[in-house]
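Z., the sequence and structure:
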Amino acid sequence: MSMEQQLDVLHQVFGGFNRHDLDAIMAHFADDCVFESPRGPDPWGRRFVGKVEVRRGLAARFEGIPDVHYSDDAHFTVGDRGVSEWTITGTTTDGQHIEVRGCDLWTFDEQGRIICKDSFWKIRDEPG
């Protein structure tokens, strides 16, 4: 898969996130995919393995931050790897406003499907 095709996949996934369209997002993931979320009990956050679990993990983002939005995005790919940088904004279900920079590290299989999405967010300290 060419770099341009990989970038197109990342742009389509990004658009799916902003539309909260899990079907559009998951259409680009391989069956044996992995999602490593930015929060969780382990050094890698929380790991979701397989398409069903990855979908559940991504759905939790929309449930926990119902108005989540990604902006200020930039993407690049090299070989079978990709990087997306973005700003996430929204309000959690308990009323906490979020505005942080983050990135995703992506891995593609030979067919251009996503086999790994590893997410990172900045941790903001409250002023005071």
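The two ends are 49 Å apart (CA to CA). The longest helix spans residues 3-19.

Let me know what you think.
H.
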